[in-house]
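Protein 1 of 2
SEQ + STRUCT:
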Amino acid sequence: MSTGRKLVSDIRGMSKLISTDNLITDRVIFSEIRNNTQLLVKREANLRKLWATDTVFTTIPCLELIEVPISECCGYTDPCQVARTRYKLPRISEGNYQYLIQGVWSINAMGGQGTKIKEVTINRYLNLLQLPYIKKQEYYWIANEYLYISNPMLKAVRIAAFFEEDVPNELMYPDCGCGNVEYNLDDYCKNPLDKEYACPGYLEQQVLAMTTQKLLQTYFRIDDDKTEDVKDDQVSKV
């Protein structure tokens, strides 16, 4: 898998105009690469592709949970308690049908992956609460940029999702010892451009081509210049 820095370098190598313009920084190029990647990944996910791959979804190995009243995430007044992530999540991409979340799992006492938790909307869960009984199935939903879990006793979960933003260190590398997660200092301090970039290999060239075209249109108005040339040529022939 390519790093963000390599993709930026490839973009500069594809156009001399981009490579010699000091206004087009690596940050600008990487931002456009990310925008185009998100566009293509959403398209593929809507076609039910990529869900089984590990090249798109970023795994946060341990999200610490706290107990809160269910009324915090909706207008439902009830003594019911649920669990909520201590910190807000980075923005998760949304497809036509759902958030691009590959899965949410509980974490067992040894820090390993437990059972997979079922996704549900908050309205659907509130309807389930009205039933005489509900199964012991655990549910999760997203609200107010937090992840909520129906089981208030859970202390931590693992999530794999397609995030539109960088995952902050306090989430990726928690200092609470959550789930016995271990990491090294190199991972913690690594520049985002030097990390492996989540983009399927078969989409990489398309992302690079789209990014190059957008940057040329934005900074050099390539398409506009070509259009004006065509108009001038047509006028001269009249």
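Protein 2 of 2
SEQ + STRUCT:
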Amino acid sequence: MGTPEVLLMHSVLLPNTDRVLFWGRTRADQTRVWDYSTAAGTYLAPANQPADLPGLDEFSSNIWSAEHTILDTAEGHVLVNGGFTPNKAFTFHPATLTWERVGDTVGNRFYSTTLGLNDGKVATLYGSATKTIEVYEHGAGWAAPIAMPASMNHHEYYPWTYVLPDGRLFIAGPHDPTHRFDLAVPAAAESFPTVFGNRSTGGEKGSSAMFILRPPDYRPVVMVMGGNPAPARKTAETIDLADPVPTWSAVADLNLERPQQFTATLLPDGRVFVGGGIIGLPDGDACEIFDPRNPGAGWALGPVMQRPRSYHSSFLLLRDGSVLAGGAPPDADPPAVYTLHERYFPSYFDAVRPQITAAPGVVNYGGNFVINTPNPGSLLEVVMLRAGSVTHGFNMSQRGLELVISGTAAGSITVEGPPNANLAPPGWYLLFVLDTDRVPSEGAWIRVTP
């Protein structure tokens, strides 16, 4: 129902809601909310905009090309910093749809990556003008910048960064070589050259995802795919960072060359969905899906997208397991020309899906909790996916964790909570149960916190 009014270049799934916060190019009323609690959906304007805050206007509050993540707070505030501002930071309140300004960063953070850490704080990394990392603590502000070694200076535009099960960080691209490092000792970073080299000649092209971490060993396997250099356009590769000597290895090629931006999106059944990244066509061409548990099958072609989705597009997993796609092209004003959104419904929408009838809203590390479900004996897996925060071809918050089912009773299962914060950094997740055919339920919101 209605039209987007602004470009879906940036998108964030708002915790404890069926709503998506999104925004795009420079304008005073830059942000919108899409409410998908009804089948038609509704577009809403927030109660205020960053430009409405004291001392700011549409240019000094411009969060186009910013970075963002969801904080570990009871409300699930969204932290947004950098972009064309370039050092300002804001929080968005999902409960009241209001913007608030917080402290500035020291460095200019254009095209940086922001993600949650294992201690509940948030790191913002690199960017086009800054070769440091800054850490944010809600209520306390930004700490002094952390200097990074010159050998990592090639990382700049939205580096594809993940928290690993041992607490270290891993930058998987888009530029080569990739690096694993301890934030406390960045000078000791390890370097891992890729098979196909850079995924981008500038900016950031292609995409990346870390497969769902699964017990008992929770091996962190990261995939990169696509990009604009010739060797990257149709290729994909993975690295298993649990190996004694991790190395990148080629996996099955994509069916289609994807030289532009697209977003690799984790589905609750563990598959990786990609769509877009193809230019010069009247539509977006076919999407593709890769199953990490059946890598020999390669990439399965899916339906053709109605519209091109490349630079300034965004793909975001919704609570029901569908994928929202929006943005590009065109990306110019006036609002009437903005491309309508579309939505992908994976194959499990054709199946009878299991249900979560009740689950706790908050869980802690190391304990057990109960999920109520009508057919507990039919369930095979329980999975948590972190609420997404997407822009420029990368979901900065995306990660998944399979939980151990420790008991089954009439109408319920008992599940072991996340073992530690390295596996599931504090914050907001969608909880899914999956049956023996790997068909997932709709997600239930759950906050993981110490």
